Amino acid sequence: MPAKGDPKTYAIIGAAMQVHRELGCGFLEAVYQEALAIEFVYRDIPLQREVALPIRHREQLLQTSYRADFVCYGNIIVELKALAKLSGIEEAQILNCLKATEFETGLLLNFGTPSLQYKRFAHTPHMNSGKSVKSVDYSSSVGKRAWVWSR
Questions:
Q1: How far, in Å, CA of 55 to CA of 111, rounded?
Q2: Phi, psi of 24 (to 5 degrees)
Q3: Is the Cα torsion angle 150, 7, 115, 145 positive or negative in sign?
Q4: DSSP sequence for 36-89
Q5: 6 has a pLDDT exceeding 50
Q6: What does DSSP say about strands 60-61 and 66-72: parallel, antiparallel, or unpaired?
Q7: pLDDT for 110-133, tens place per residue?
Q8: In the predicted model, is pLDDT for residue 47 greater than 90?
Q9: Closest of 104, 8, 101, 1 to residue 53, by C-alpha
Q10: Which residues are CB-contacts of 136 (< 8 A; sequence separation ≥ 6)?
């Protein structure tokens, strides 16, 4: 679980664990999304579902938006997957979304394995270099941390 110093992501991951405990793996992503919405309401976690997030290129708003599964607490992007294994594609998707929206935190939750997998992504401006640092916390079963630098 994430550090208790981050109570919002802790609460979101706890809700996801409860859904996974009750449903197990093997359902389509839409099933987990609906169940997780119910669990968020039950736990008083503020949520918006299927949120269209604007994307800009060269300061122009694109007609195409990114649709997040959830935005919780007004600033945490929550993406759900139901895959046998996560790849770099899912991670790149949430990192790009954080970069484009300037939200600070993203969670990637995978219900497609016997134990819930989660990854926490943080996007914070790096003061001196004009770059951002994105940290990735992997689920406790993997126990790794990686740093990604971008301009």
A1: 27
A2: 70, -165
A3: positive
A4: HHHHHHHTT--EEEEEEE--EETTEE-SS-EEEEEEETTTEEEEEE--SS--HH
A5: yes
A6: unpaired
A7: 999 999 999 999 876 554 444 444
A8: yes
A9: 101
A10: 91, 119, 120, 121, 145, 146, 147, 148
The mean of the pLDDT values for the chain is 83
Query: How many CB atoms are closer than 10 A to CB 130?
Result: 8
CA distance 122 to 68: 16
Cα distance between residue 85 and residue 59, in whole Å: 35
Number of H helices, E strands in the chain: 3, 9
**Around 120, how many Cα atoms within 13 Å sit in the side-chain half-sphere?**
21
Whole-number Cα distances in Å, 67 to 20, 36, 80, 123: 23, 17, 12, 19
* Tokens read off for 25: 């793996």
Among 147, 131, 111, 141, which residue's Cα sits nearest to residue 24?
111
**Cα–Cα distance between 48 and 68 in angstroms, integer?**
9
In this structure, which amino acid lies at residue 103? Answer: F
What is the rounded distance in angstroms from the CA atom of residue 19 to the CA atom of residue 92?
25
Cβ contact 81:90 at 8 Å: yes
Give me the residue spans of the domains in the chain. 7-150
